[in-house]
Amino acid sequence: MEQLQHVAIIMDGNGRWAKAKGLPRTQGHFVGVDNVRNIAIKANDMGIKVLTVYAFSTENWKRPLEEVSYLMKLPAIFFDKFMKELMEKNIRIKMIGEMEQIPKDTAKILQRAIDKTANNTGMILNFAMNYGSHREMILAINHYAKDVLENKASLNIDEKGFEKYLMTSDLPPVDLMIRTSGEQRISNFLLWQIAYTELMFVDEPWPEFTPEKFEGYCHDFLKRDRRYGGLK
Ligand code: IPE
Ligand code: IPE
Ligand code: MG
Questions:
Q1: How far apart are CA 97 and CA 116, in angstroms?
Q2: Which residue among 9, 11, 14, 67 has the greatest number of ligand 1 atoms within 8 angstroms of its CB, and so is best to mutate?
Q3: Residues 126 and 113 sit within 8 Å (Cβ to Cβ)
Q4: Burial class (CB in 10 A: 0-12, 13-18, 19+), 139
Q5: Within 10 Å of residue 183's Cβ, how many Cβ atoms?
Q6: Structure pTM?
């Protein structure tokens, strides 16, 4: 998929999906974990280069402790179940967000997955964990200011110069962003990066977002006319 290198997904609706079935919200997250695998395998098979999934935002710490604790267990569940398959498929794990506040055991599991897959050359499955776009930009500005003071950067930078300080600096531009479960907002995800990204807000909650639907939305994307402010 030449025109579709990087897809970002706001995986929303786990809690509402579970509630509608009379299940605890955590059950929605548990089912959602399997779907990360299903969509990642599909995206990899389709030749997509990067799939960035919003797994935990800087605002999600506001949730009840019990739910936050469960969400922090999901990386262990995911990698226990699927690491073998990820290796077979040559998928590389990356992360954007701050490791610091993440509980030590969870951070260790994430780092281990990143290290173990570091030489894989297939699709990058990029987890946004404890990620928030405002925080990312503030960290970038602080880092840049420090570089200026230490004479490592010039006082004037352009857009490309700024992007080097973002957590996505080594990734291609986001072509398509999909949010599941009906909400039409960005919730602090990749704000700088989506200046010219195609956006899709779809109704299915994350646990019901099938690989077939994903492929369909990717084909819809190919029909869009991206003008970037110019004329065609
Ligand atoms: C997405 O599902 C997962 C996370 C935000 C961690 P939600 O937990 O937001 O589910 P809803 O939106 O409450 O249904
Ligand atoms: C966005 O979903 C964050 C993730 C999917 C990780 P939320 O459910 O946290 O967003 P809001 O609260 O509806 O904006
Ligand atoms: Mg939500």
A1: 19
A2: 14
A3: no
A4: middle
A5: 13
A6: 0.98
> Which secondary structure element, helix H or strand E, spans residue 30, and what is its range?
helix 25-46
Q: Which ligand is nearest to the CA of 185?
A: 2
Q: Which residues are catalytic?
A: 12, 60
Give 160 Cα–ligand 3 centroid separation in angstroms. Answer: 32
Q: Which two tokens stand for residue 197?
A: 């990204």
Count of C-beta atoms within a 10 Å radius of residue 114: 15
Single-letter amino acid, residue 83: M
Q: Is the CB of 12 under 6 A from ligand 1?
A: yes
Torsion region of 101: left, alpha or beta (phi above 0 gives left; psi -120 to 50 gives alpha) = alpha
The DSSP line for 119-161 is: T--S-EEEEEEEE-HHHHHHHHHHHHHHHHHTTSS-S---HHH
Do residues 205 and 75 touch, judged by C-beta distance below 8 A?
no
Alpha carbon distance 168, 29 (integer Å): 26
Looking up tokens 């928030």 gives: 132
Question: Which structure tokens are listed for 33?
Answer: 């974990």
Backbone angles phi, psi at 83, to 5 degrees: -60, -40
> Residue-wise pLDDT tens for the chain (232 aa)?
789 999 999 999 999 999 999 999 999 999 999 999 999 999 999 999 999 999 999 999 999 999 999 999 999 999 999 999 999 999 999 999 999 999 999 999 999 999 999 999 999 999 999 999 999 999 999 999 999 999 999 999 999 999 999 999 999 999 999 999 999 999 999 999 999 999 999 999 999 999 999 999 999 999 999 999 999 7
